[in-house]
């Protein structure tokens, strides 16, 4: 149904995107480093859920609605920027917090999933990415639903795999420097800055 060579090109394109720094990567790394690997993996799960929804919305044509009604796109974009800025403030406000206390908060896993879903879902460019990339590998001569299912599964699965690697790597590095309060504070400020920068980029419509 989908040519193996086309599928390899599709996976290569996805890998290139998942290797680029962005809000999703920053969320997984910061959550795992500051709250522990379990929370990092839960954030990765939240991102996977949101990507699944984006693939579904793309297949249903919502991205086309955003294209024909820019005000809807801008509305989601501004809400997403505000949420990223809130995450930046949230991380910064815990710069002097205790890592063990943060990692063992009640409901931390569910909160991490929510952050993963919202971080990706409120980025309309993630939806537009799905809408632009997926049709390039879909043939009208075959079952469209089946093709979207296969390509969507690859997109979500590969993204989750990358996020798991980022989460485990971040946790490992964080444990190595867990005894250094100054390094922890610097990393916290850096993570906060990354989300702040991502919020500004999204707000001004940068690519």
From TrEMBL:
Signal peptide location: none
InterPro entries according to UniProt: LeuE-type
Protein's UniProt name: LysE family translocator
UniProt source species: Azotobacter bryophylli
Annotated PANTHER family: ARGININE EXPORTER PROTEIN ARGO, ARGININE EXPORTER PROTEIN ARGO-RELATED
Cell compartments where the protein resides: Cell membrane
A Pfam family: LysE
Domain of life of the source: Bacteria
Regions crossing the membrane: 42-64, 148-174, 186-204
Keywords: Cell membrane, Membrane, Transmembrane, Transmembrane helix
Membrane keyword on record: yes
Topology term for the membrane: Multi-pass membrane protein
């Amino acid at each position: 149904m989908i040519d193996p060579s086309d599928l390899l090109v599709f996976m290569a394109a996805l890998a290139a995107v998942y290797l680029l720094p962005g809000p999703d990567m920053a969320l997984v790394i910061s959550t795992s480093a500051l709250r522990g690997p379990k929370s990092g993996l839960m954030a990765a799960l939240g991102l996977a859920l949101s990507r699944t929804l984006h693939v579904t919305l793309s297949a249903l044509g919502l991205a086309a609605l955003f294209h024909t009604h820019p005000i809807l796109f801008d509305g989601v974009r501004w809400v997403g920027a505000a949420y990223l800025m809130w995450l930046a403030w949230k991380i910064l406000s815990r710069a002097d917090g205790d890592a063990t206390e943060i990692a063992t908060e009640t409901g931390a896993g569910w909160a991490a999933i929510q952050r993963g879903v919202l971080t990706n879902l409120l980025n309309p460019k993630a939806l537009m990415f799905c809408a632009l990339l997926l049709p390039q590998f879909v043939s009208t001569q075959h079952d469209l639903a089946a093709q979207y299912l296969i390509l969507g599964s690859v997109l979500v699965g590969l993204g989750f795999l990358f996020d798991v690697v980022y989460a485990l790597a971040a946790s490992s590095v964080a444990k190595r420097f867990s005894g250094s309060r100054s390094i922890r504070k610097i990393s916290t400020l850096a993570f906060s800055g990354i989300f702040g920068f991502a919020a500004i980029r999204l707000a001004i419509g940068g690519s």
